[in-house]
Automatic annotation (TrEMBL):
Cofactor (UniProt): NAD(+)
Entry's family note: Belongs to the NAD(P)-dependent epimerase/dehydratase family.
Organism the protein comes from: Rhodococcus antarcticus
Encoding gene, per UniProt annotation: galE
Protein name (database record): UDP-glucose 4-epimerase
Subunit structure: Homodimer.
Length: 322
């Protein structure tokens, strides 16, 4: 297929673009490089540098794309609380412009990066797609608003659309991995300690209602996640908007993740407990049963040590290149 990948210079977008190319698809990456990296765009993809709202219509026009994979977004929960405008304009308005370009050009398929943050504080674990959507921050709310828009575009205009709700993405795929200028995610931060770039990792709360008192999350390997996007493209059906949760189905506590990083890196990784971080739910674990049943998705890299080991290999490669 001939595909447009917005945000293909970012973490999940670049891994998915690489996999699409490996499977013989033609890939154009559209990225404004505000948080992505030009050197993350895989060899073989065409990079168009520009923002989605103004550039996507020009790229799609008259070029007969078979589909769009829309990764480009702002994705920091904390920032979204302080600067919501970046999320309502940067995520929602931009995505509406993209949807209009898709409608006007008759582009048949869309795969959208949604998030577990659309659910908010869960009542039942594991979280299924039928769980109530009550986001607790503007980031999750902005992604949910886009999901609603996609539902109505699919129904009214025959778009074949799939939203994938990621849980905690981690790991790496060769030269493609997680490289944020402002790093807030647990595994990359712990690996910075192992690299000697930080003194210690801060554990946000040890008084949560969990077995060891720290928050539990569902870590999904970025390559398993990328595979789901290819399956979503195949299974997208005209006029329908399908929604799938993507996680590994098991939860690991913050302390278990730190322990895995110690095993993988051989570094003692000092940890200090601090207060709870605002907005963190205690436990987020996905039910991915629907993706398994309907897409035939099989997450294969579910061991936390493997996820951390792949992230560690990538982190060391980046350090060696610098
Ligand atoms: N944590 C620490 N110390 C740190 C960083 C994180 O203890 O220095 C803890 C957090 O409190 C949380 C867990 O580690 O309990 C994971 O935190 P991350 O920041 O790595 O990830 P989140 O679970 O907060 O966020 C992820 C995605 C978001 C998404 C959210 C909900 O990054 O985009 O899951 O699905 F919105």
């Amino acid at each position: 297929m001939k595909l447009l990948v917005t945000g293909g210079a970012g973490y999940v977008g670049s891994v998915t673009a690489a996999l699409l190319l490996e499977r013989g698809h033609e890939v154009t990456v559209l990225d404004d490089l505000s948080t992505g990296h030009a050197d993350a765009v895989p060899v073989g993809a065409t990079l168009v540098e520009g923002d989605v709202a103004t550039t996507a219509p020009a790229v799609l026009m008259g070029a007969d794309f078979d589909g769009v994979l829309h990764f480009a977004a702002r994705s920091l929960v904390g920032e979204s609380v302080v600067e919501p405008e970046k999320y309502w304009y940067g995520n929602v308005v931009t995505s509406l412009q993209l949807l209009e370009a898709i409608r006007v050009t008759g582009t048949p398929r869309l795969v959208f990066s949604s998030t577990a943050a659309t659910y908010g504080e869960p009542e039942v674990i594991p979280i299924t797609e039928d769980a109530p959507t009550r986001p607790t921050n503007p980031y999750g709310a902005s992604k949910l608003a886009i999901d609603h828009a996609i539902t109505s575009y699919a129904a009214a205009h025959g778009l074949a659309a799939v939203s994938l709700r990621y849980f905690n993405v981690a790991g790496a795929h060769g030269a493609q991995g997680e490289r944020h200028t402002t790093e807030t995610h647990l595994i990359p931060l712990v690996l910075q300690v192992a690299q000697g770039r930080r003194e210690h990792v801060t554990v946000f709360g040890d008084d949560w209602p969990t077995a060891d008192g720290t928050c539990v999350r569902d870590y999904v390997h970025v390559l398993d996640l990328a595979e789901a996007h290819l399956l979503a493209l195949e299974h997208a059906s005209s006029g329908a908007h399908q929604v799938y949760n993507l996680g590994s189905g098991s939860g690991f506590s913050v302390l278990e993740v730190v322990e895995a990083c110690r095993r993988v890196t051989g570094h003692p990784v000092p940890a200090r407990t601090a207060a709870r971080r605002a907005g963190d739910p205690a436990v987020l674990v996905a039910s991915s049963d629907r993706a398994v049943a309907e897409l035939g998705w099989k997450p294969e890299r579910t061991a936390i040590d493997q996820i951390v080991a792949d992230a560690w290999t990538f982190t060391q490669q980046v350090a060696a290149r610098a």
